Amino acid sequence: MTGVGGQGTILASDILGEAALLAGYDIKKTDTLGMAQRGGSVISHIRIGDHVYAPLIAEGDVDILIAFEKLEAIRWCAYLRTGGIAIINDLAVPPLSVGLGTSRYPNDKEILAAFKKITGRVYFVNGTDQAHRLGDARTLNTIMMGCISTFLPIDILTWKEAIAHRIPEKIRELNFKAFDKGREVIKHVGIG
Amino acid sequence: MSKTLTGTTKKLLSGNEAVALGAYHAGIMVAAAYPGTPSTEILENLAKHHDLNAEWATNEKVAMEIGIGSAYAGRRTLVSMKHIGLNVAVDPFMAAAITGVNGGLVIISADDPGIHSSQDEQDNRHYAPFAKVPMIEPSDSQEAYDMMAYAFSISEEFDTPAIVRLTTRIAHSNSLVEVTGTRKVPTERIGFEHNVQKYVMLPVNARFRRPFVEDRLVKLAAYTETFPFNKISWGDKKLGIITSGVSYQYAREVFHTASFLKLGMTYPPPKKMIREFCNGVDRAIVIEELDPFLQDAILAMGIAVTGKEFIPRIGELNTQIVREAAIKEGLVKGKSADTLTGTLPPLPGRPPLLCPGCPHSGVFYTLNILGKRSRLSDKSKEPEIIVTGDIGCYTLATYPPLYGMDTADCMGASIGTALGIEKANIGRKVVAVIGDSTFLHSGITGLVDAVYNNSKITVIILDNSTTAMTGHQEHPGTGKSAKSVETQAVDNEQIVRGLGVKDVQVVDAFDLKALRNTLKSCISNEQLSVVIVRGDCPTKTRRRSIPMVIDYETCTSCETCLKIGCPAIQKVKDKIFIEPTLCIGDVCSVCRQVCPHHAIEPAKTTAKG
Ligand SMILES: Cc1ncc(C[n+]2csc(CCOP(=O)(O)OP(=O)(O)O)c2C)c(N)n1
Ligand code: SF4
After folding, report:
1. What pTM did the predictor assign?
2. For residue B336, what are the CA distances in angstroms to A75, A191, B184, B346, B574?
């Protein structure tokens, strides 16, 4: 799970970890933050199974890559296994160097081309749009969780319990809605 | 959290949370630490408990001394720090290694292989043989929790401080922990005994204690053979793997059938067990991160093992690195993975930046102008001012467009380094910049030297009222304790005046005019000066107001505002734009002050902006 510091990827990975725990799996989860709170790139490795040893996933071994931002998606694409699933939020957050003119942000064609070499299963979702429509940009993480939930053997009630554990009561209902939205959105996007 | 069949609970905990819970259950009454990634969350978690004393200390040395005192008084005590923090604390640490303890004293050393968030990579395992104390290394959160009880017992039974070494990947990975214990505070040792031979290290007493230390090692060497986390699991006897910590997990992913000797106590190592293991396999190898610590110990036993011949010494390991190394060494079959990275278009990096509204931006912008530091971009001429820096968020100002500093070595070094450059007498002005937490941590002694030895440098204290870099911890200057209780704040202005500095100025971090005038006069006058720049960190206070917008009728695209390095100010398709969700508004307003065309104003609340 990857994104830009401040996008809520860590909370999302916490919810996913919690859901897997409630579903009875072994889990290891590690966030490589660098100095994420200051807008750096963030990557969380989450491993779920009967028994998990290493917290870090090797390149080419990732089953599902969830990217909250497009540049971060392409940056980590080599981690995806052949035929793996990529769920990419259709959002560009250009780093400062792009504004200063010293680097270039990759275009959608390049991003898709990079993934095409690995897999045919690329889902571009308009998560940020959906979050704005729900009236709170911070629901992006539960929307993305809704998307990924459709690919994992964890039932919906367990997911919602995990969300309830990690999200304060005041905004819980909104996040349940966002989660359902994510499940709906992923069904309607064409495979890129 | 979920319930297990035996009624215990299972939790998904980070290594740091597990250490804190383990120490809490082991009955600690005192915890002291100075923040440092990846160790910080240990004290933060302990501070949530009301039935123990958990404090941020001024620095790691003081934390260690608090730990020693509390252990002398018979309380179980935890002291935690990052790897380089132990460098700061090593003097009292060595002393405790010789005096021993009374109540258990456990020291957490959180190493950072791969330098995720530090200024160096060092293998703190070497401190164990150096100080002749035991060292324990968990390989996941469950072990981190379970081992704490052992660490305290070992400390008490063998009268020694004990090190528990974590690495970033252990401290910051979450895994399942079956929580089997509850809090029990031992009472047998409480109380302080007058015992000068043990506690007053005059040469005569230190000499008296020395044989005890050697004798302790012999006893620990016997104990380590029975330590339950030193374990052999026999598999295929063609290959035997000796490993510890997180390296064990990577090795398990790569070698499915081999025999394993997993060490939970890496100093002293269980020599008998190692010999038995190596005799039982055709070939033994060591898989460990950083230095050949175990490998050298085993080689010194006269056993031929390899490891660092194919496992890198630099950086963090992972499954991929171990797998590739094993393939090259012919230990497992497979072919090296083709990497796609070469086929990708060049991608812009995303380095961490000062936040929008950071109180450090204005100072460095001003220094940049006054010292003509943007000459660094084309190396045409030397900048007029040399800036020695320190460690904190402000170190991020090093990069363009701010060109903030020329040096940053270790915490507190800015002032001493500036003094050295001044004494080298190369004809350039020197300014030291240091954060408020860092100044209290280890900057004061440098400033004492500056006063004493008649220096004429300028020291800028960047007072954002928090220890921001490590996640906004309180410090002695903030007036709040680790438990968020009000306390007396240590006033850095009074310290500086008390030391005898004559030219002391206090400036608002968001007032560029004042910054410019003050810095100009302090840098040019021929005496020691200290400028305290005060401005709260908005990422901590979450203070924000109406965001700024650009009036495109007056904006000439001169790009002056881009020179502040504010992430909210972006250039999209040749147009400068202030991202309203990032801008914190006129609580900062630095961009508004630098704009020569007055094109930046707060958005009108009525208009959509
Ligand atoms: C010996 C040592 N201990 C701890 C750290 C971790 N660390 C890095 S910067 C920093 C403090 C920064 O606080 P401050 O000086 O107030 O600057 P700010 O980040 O708030 O701008 C700490 C504790 C370290 N690098 N070295
Ligand atoms: S956390 Fe605070 S001090 Fe650090 S860069 Fe952000 S605003 Fe500046």
Report:
1. 0.96
2. 21, 30, 51, 23, 44
